[in-house]
Design a protein that fits this description.
single chain, 332 residues, alpha/beta, TIM Barrel, 7-stranded parallel beta sheet, two-stranded antiparallel sheet, 10 helices, 15% strand
Length: 332
């Protein structure tokens, strides 16, 4: 039998022992879908002084929008440009508009509505992904998102990174884990068909395997529809880069990262979509770890590790007791 034929994980039609984003897209839309990063020109409460200045210590000046077009371009023009770029590799007849840069619910509702509606009006747009913070979800925006989820496939991506409040303070995240859980709960109570994607980062300063997997367990208890797992990248010009160059921060080694990834997948709910297993650092700005540039090799080695150790996503997931309260964070 091939690895695909002997795969015990049910949300897969290949040798992948976790639910890939590609598998989710094919089940949801019936085929390939391109995801187009956009920059709507929003800022962040962690930049403008509302909760802090300078952003998180790993954040580039583009606020994770390094692969998005110039924010000065209208949304329609950005989508057209991204379609041209992506068409070199993929079919762009169906696309998701990905509001990626900075905090994409951090503006008055009429401004947000105009941006989202402009995106949905473009040919071939079949869904929206909106990256934001859990502390930037006022009632009117949450109500609108719930309504919008009845019109299109809507995913709200929430950056958590770590459930340890100590870590959140050190990386200048600007909110606690309790605030994050509150944002998730408000999205859930709003109804509709909002899918929640939680972003986690492995290799944050001061964290080891114990802390990373504790965060995974806390996230699993929230039962998100999707999870993105990111390796911490040291990018030029960031506070993390200054720590790295001063010898105060050491990035994760490749084998350690693979081991933590495999353990994390075991702990997550089996039905959760894995939106990402390692991020893309802009090569010109990436200081470390340079092994992360070989993304395909990392993913292939993860597949081999899961097969060799006879494990898969959700194998160790423990279903929370009915009516149990959500996790409240780890202050230590």
């Amino acid at each position: 039998m091939t690895q695909a034929q002997s795969n015990p994980y049910r949300y897969s039609d290949s040798n992948k022992r976790y639910q890939t984003y590609d598998y989710y897209l094919r089940r949801t839309f019936g085929g390939k879908v391109a995801k187009l990063p956009l920059d709507a020109g929003f800022t962040c409460p962690n930049l403008d002084g509302t909760v802090g200045y300078g952003g998180c210590i790993y954040c580039s000046g583009r606020g994770s929008g390094d692969f998005a077009p110039d924010a000065a371009l209208p949304i329609a023009a950005q989508i057209a440009l991204q379609k041209q770029r992506f068409a070199r590799k993929w079919d762009v007849s169906r696309c998701i508009a990905y509001f990626q840069a900075h905090t994409n619910t951090y503006a008055p509702l009429p401004v947000l509505r105009a941006a989202y509606e402009e995106a949905l009006a473009q040919p071939g747009i079949v869904g929206l992904n909106i990256a934001t913070r859990a502390d930037c979800l006022p009632p009117d925006v949450v109500e609108y998102l719930a309504w919008l989820s009845g019109r299109t496939v809507l995913t709200v991506e929430l950056g958590l990174q770590s459930s340890f409040d100590r870590t959140a303070a050190d990386i200048r995240r600007g909110h606690s884990f309790a605030q994050f859980c509150d944002g998730v709960e408000r999205l859930r109570r709003a109804g509709g068909r909002i899918q929640i994607c939680v972003h986690l980062m492995f290799g944050l300063p001061g964290e080891g395997r114990r802390e990373m997997l504790r965060t995974v367990r806390d996230t699993a208890a929230l039962r998100p529809e999707q999870v993105k797992l990111h390796l911490v990248h040291v990018l030029r010009g960031t506070e993390l880069a200054r720590r790295y160059e001063a010898g105060l921060y050491r990035p994760m080694e490749r084998e350690n990262y693979l081991s933590v990834l495999a353990a994390a997948l075991e702990l997550l709910p089996p039905e959760t979509v894995i939106g990402r297993l390692t991020g893309d650092g802009p090569p010109a700005d990436l200081l470390a770890p340079l092994w992360s540039l070989r993304k395909t090799a990392v993913l292939n080695d993860l597949d081999k590790l899961l097969y060799r150790t006879s494990t898969w996503q959700g194998r160790l997931f423990a279903t929370p007791a009915q009516g149990s309260p959500p996790p409240q964070g780890n202050p230590l």
